[in-house]
Amino acid sequence: MATLSDVARRAGVSPATASRVINGSSKPVTDELRERVLAAVAELQYVPNAHAQLLARSHRSAVGVIVHDVSDPYFAEITRGLQRVATDQGRLLMICNSYRDPDRELEYVELLRGHQVAALILAGSGYHDEAFTRQLNEKLAAYEATGGRVAVIGRHEHSGDAVMPDNRAGGYLAGRELCGLGHRAIGVIAGPRILTTTTDRLAGLRQALTEQGRELPERRIRYAEFDRDGGAEATARLLDADPELTAIVALNDSMAIGALATLRTTGLAVPQQVSVLGFDDMPIARDVTPALTTVRLPLVHMGVRAMSLVLGPGAAAPRVEVLPAELIRRDTAGPVPRSTRATAGSAPRARRGDTTS
Amino acid sequence: MATLSDVARRAGVSPATASRVINGSSKPVTDELRERVLAAVAELQYVPNAHAQLLARSHRSAVGVIVHDVSDPYFAEITRGLQRVATDQGRLLMICNSYRDPDRELEYVELLRGHQVAALILAGSGYHDEAFTRQLNEKLAAYEATGGRVAVIGRHEHSGDAVMPDNRAGGYLAGRELCGLGHRAIGVIAGPRILTTTTDRLAGLRQALTEQGRELPERRIRYAEFDRDGGAEATARLLDADPELTAIVALNDSMAIGALATLRTTGLAVPQQVSVLGFDDMPIARDVTPALTTVRLPLVHMGVRAMSLVLGPGAAAPRVEVLPAELIRRDTAGPVPRSTRATAGSAPRARRGDTTS
DNA sequence: TACCGCAGAGAAAGCCCTTTCCCGCAGGGA
DNA sequence: TCCCTGCGGGAAAGGGCTTTCTCTGCGGTA
Prior knowledge:
Protein name (chains A, B): LacI family DNA-binding transcriptional regulator
Distance between the termini of chain A: 77 Å
Number of helices of chain A: 12
Region (Disordered) (chains A, B): 331-357
Largest interface: A-B, 40 and 41 residues
Shape of chain A: elongated
Oligomer: homodimer
Strand order of the largest sheet of chain A: 2-1-3-4-5-11
Strand content of chain A: 15-25%
GO molecular function, one term (chains A, B): DNA binding
Structural class of chain A: alpha/beta
Pfam family, one (chains A, B): Peripla_BP_1
Organism (chains A, B): Micromonospora parva
């Protein structure tokens, strides 16, 4: 690889001058030398060594991002928002997929710190895991102590700036909607228990049901992976145990899509026999059939806000921005069927006693 | 930020020793000093400066990847394959989204070169653009001249190693399938004309139709963005001009999903009135309703192969691996309807003279 | 006892840039 | 004419790390 001194030598100038031409320094250089340098660059196909540059100008310009998986639409949307603001400000993003592995998350914080990022954004659910949370906070604190900026999206464990989708309110919206439609036998397919996103959404849902005199017993909840296959499988388990269910709340849209797949296989009509509610409103939600009724989160905006916080002026006190959830009514949620559903595989069971307000 | 010399000073050793402990060098260090260094690292929350490291050991370990958009399922799958091999070999991936902007692609080649990547993988369609192709090849050649390895996925313009999905054969499969089902009035919603992927798939499709004595006139092709909305819009235009169409081939699954959306809005039943074929077999294809009949490409495997080529031993001659396409029959393609469709909005028109073999 | 070899540690030379500091020179004002 | 100013350019000092080379001191062999 050609180096800067190669270029300088070839152009018959000092490395300093070559550097100034190449970087468009404010220091003036005569046109003649400039030409010579540019010519040498072209001839040698010179590309500056990014590591050397980054080391020399200890500049801190890139921003580190840790998500679960960029190709998951939830994070893809958030990332779109992050990217938009970053690009506007001429920042490079370094995006890491933790695949929801806490250890990997910790490693990536170190890695990004090592890469001298100007700021760090963690997106995605927090964990109910004290030891991990403490470790993470220590690392983040150490990073902030050296001037790094940190913001989190959707996790409350961190003491600094945060952008929070209102998961709890979203769960509440879902619950209220189903109650309004007359459902009582409501099942939930949930993501991993250890995720705060799961428990927050569940808490809101439960609150809505409780307010309406319904309840949400643990036996009507199935925990699985937060993806399509997890949703499909959890739905199967749920229906197996509780054939009289008239509604299923999926704690994200991917699971909801899995649920629709299982229901189709089972031959249960949506929403005539079973209603389905999703969560997140990923782009694909409107394209499944029937189109998914879901709780929308302003994903792109969440990204925009987080990046703005982190690149904008700091604040004395940590800022928490809560962004509202919104119910999007499409075609998968309908009124509770008039009669008890005739279940195909298993014998119809007597309704278990739901309490009434 | 604490530096290595800070650590060394605190531990009462030389920077050399500290470095050896931290990096697990093969050079032996007494346990006592090791302990002291490790303690200092922990106390100072020391993280090595990645740029300095990368500069000092001019090692070239990371691999650069340029895709259209990682969050596009097509590339997400490919990337999964790339990642798998890279992780196995302890390589870091730097992934850049070109968003199908040739200039950005060129910039990213430079950027990644500047970051001293050991290899470069370009995934995604090539362009029918000689000037661009020449420029890109020059840049790649310059990179290879300095020992860099290059592989491309799905583009023939490059002279080096390549992994090629058989787009043409895939188009052929789609055409043959529709002919077998009796379709004659076949429309195509295609990606941008400038992409070789578009023209390759189209060529295969046209070949199949021609062999069966059908034809594919330009008026039955609509070019649009290679995404959902492009597909929806192109479908609308196509149906508007040609209400008697009985089948639509989408040149990728995203467009196919857009087509399904438009057909649903229009009130045309799939596949009873109109058949739809996709291309790629993205994960979501099986979850739309009806499930999408499509041409499968071994996306993950393509990624695996490309990364293997690029990290494995070099070859004297450039290697081209062509990976086969496969037709996946699901529920969107059916036999041609018996009678001419009763079109809702526009008056039924006389069939234009399709030639018969 | 004298010498060789080796283990373990440090000194210092890069890695490739950027940027400050300094120098020479030309032009303009006194 | 002299001095000051300012412009254009180069020398050199980092930036933080790795790694080679060198040095010291010890145990073992002749």
